[in-house]
Specification:
This protein has 484 residues and is α/β, with parallel strands linked by helices. It has two domains: 150 residues, Leucine Aminopeptidase, subunit E, domain 1 (3-Layer(aba) Sandwich); 324 residues, 3-Layer(aba) Sandwich (Aminopeptidase). The strands form four sheets. It has an eight-stranded mixed β-sheet, sandwiched between helices. Strands 1-6-5-2-4-3 form a six-stranded mixed β-sheet, with helices on both faces. It is elongated, with a radius of gyration of 25 Å.
């Protein structure tokens, strides 16, 4: 169901509306005397004697036309707690045949900063569904009217909406099938974001060849589709301060190339562009909320296909940085795309920080499952900022090691380096160690391996299964708390 939310700064009445009200964690409803009728108050008070008050949400059917939902709020409520309550509330609303509700913000007797804003944010995030290609779509809409004084300010409403739209845009991109969202189409979609005030530059095969981006081009040369590097600039400050840079892997479909993947689950490789989708979604969010920051997003868009012109195992290519790479496995392609993108971003924009995101290795799923993204970084301060921001929005990261001792695993006899560790082990770390070699000027850099986080087959707290948009909210929080 779609969600429509309207804010009304008016007094809540005891009308026969379906109401969402808030109480303390012990379900003390004395504060609701002014908000519901005496008969309803007595009815709910009596029924609470038989209810399990450990539940966070209890529903009461007053009659065939009126439902009251009570949501308990614990004392030390975080913003994430509020979002999770909203998500749980959406699940309940989605199962009901009732489609119109009134949230009474005046029932909140709680010292929580903008609880209602985060609560509604959770409802919206959980409500997302990708039904573009279903012939029978669920056209029902849940309408929520929010009354009272404890509603988010106009500025906060804009911020929440911008983050939601950025997250949903990332989810949409990841959910698209490979036959629709190939690199040519992807570049066009990014270009359409110009209307939001983003400065977009698209580097096609011809321009990339001229620049010497051969590690990126090598990945895509087996495909009939083009390969691209796309930059998105947001200048939210009048001064020319150094931008924050975000770089994403955009492998629109990954067959593995000549090092062909097994057929089982290969359909999941349409999600191999999730890192780039996060960067695009983030840049859309920053533009929509007019973020007071200078930022640049850079994505490498390719399709990794076998073919008569495909890159071969054993090929040696020269990267944009000038360093040479021996390709031992064409399925270790994401790092090749990022290698050129990272050096280009650092050289062209001289950013304060660089954060790259990629569904880079299956090894990170073995290490961390679907609970944490792997964080690799050359900078302790940036790492700590990402860890804190991740905790605040429940998009968690776990720092993994980088060390010069791993270099011997990717040194090549025939070139400056090889693109895989043939000895086995430390798959995620050697991939990150490879990327670090393309940060030439010691810019604070962090790599997020989101292979376990970009897609959820069983759903999470704030998504209903499928593409998660993981990373958009994390990076928004990083910017908001530490750089804006």
């Amino acid at each position: 169901m779609n969600i429509k939310i309207n804010f009304k700064n008016q007094v809540f009445s005891k009308a026969s509306e379906n109401s969402i009200l808030f109480v303390d964690e012990k379900y003390n409803i004395s504060s609701l005397r002014k908000l519901i009728s005496g008969t309803e108050y007595s009815y709910i008070l009596d029924l609470l004697k038989t209810e399990d008050i450990k539940k966070k949400i209890i529903t009461f059917n007053i009659n065939s036309k009126r439902k009251i939902i009570l949501i308990s709020l614990k004392k030390n409520l975080t913003n994430s707690d509020a979002e999770n309550l909203g998500a749980k509330c959406y699940e309940l609303l989605n199962k009901s045949k009732i489609t119109e509700y009134t949230v009474n913000s005046d029932s909140i007797n709680h010292k929580s900063n903008n609880f209602i804003g985060y609560f509604l944010h959770g409802i919206k995030l959980k409500s997302y569904k990708f039904e573009k290609y279903k012939t029978k779509k669920n056209k029902n809409e849940i309408s929520i009217k929010v009354l009272g004084k404890n509603i988010p300010s106009q500025k906060e409403q804009i911020k929440f909406k911008a983050i939601e739209e950025g997250t949903f845009y990332a989810r949409d991109l990841v959910s698209e099938p490979g036959n629709v969202l190939h690199p040519d189409e992807y570049a066009k979609r990014i270009n359409s974001l110009r209307k939001l005030g983003l400065k977009i530059n698209i580097y096609d095969d011809k321009k990339l060849k001229k620049l010497g981006m051969n590690t990126l081009l090598g990945v895509g040369q087996g495909s009939i589709r083009g390969s691209y590097l796309v930059t998105m600039e947001w200048n939210g400050l009048k001064n020319k301060s150094k931008p924050l840079a975000f770089v994403g892997k955009g492998v629109c479909f990954d067959t593995g190339g000549i090092s062909l993947k097994p057929a089982k689950f290969m359909e999941d490789m349409t999600y191999d562009m999730a890192g780039s989708a996060v960067v695009v979604g983030l840049m859309k969010s920053l533009a929509l909320r007019k973020a007071k920051i200078n930022a640049v997003g850079v994505v490498g868009l390719v399709e990794n296909m076998p073919g008569g012109n495909a890159q071969r195992p054993g090929d040696i290519v020269k990267s944009y940085s000038g360093k040479t790479v021996e390709i031992l496995n064409t399925d270790a392609e994401g790092r090749l795309v990022l290698a050129d993108a990272l050096t280009f971003t650092e050289e062209k924009y001289n950013p304060k920080i660089i954060v790259d995101l990629a569904t880079l290795t299956g090894a990170i799923i073995v290490s961390l499952g679907s609970e944490y993204a792997g964080l690799f970084s050359n900078n302790d301060k940036l790492s700590q900022q990402l860890i804190e921001s991740g905790k605040n929005v429940e998009e968690k990261v776990w720092r993994m090691p980088l060390n010069k001792n791993y270099d011997k695993l990717i040194d090549s006899k025939n070139a400056d380096m090889q693109n895989i560790n043939y000895l086995g082990g430390a798959g995620s770390t050697t991939a990150a160690q490879f990327l670090q070699r393309f940060i030439l000027n010691k810019t604070p850099w962090a790599h997020l391996d989101i292979a376990g986080m970009a897609f959820s087959k069983y759903g999470g707290a704030l998504n209903s299964g499928g593409a998660t948009g993981y990373g958009v909210r994390l990076l928004n929080k990083l910017i908001e708390d530490h750089y804006e």
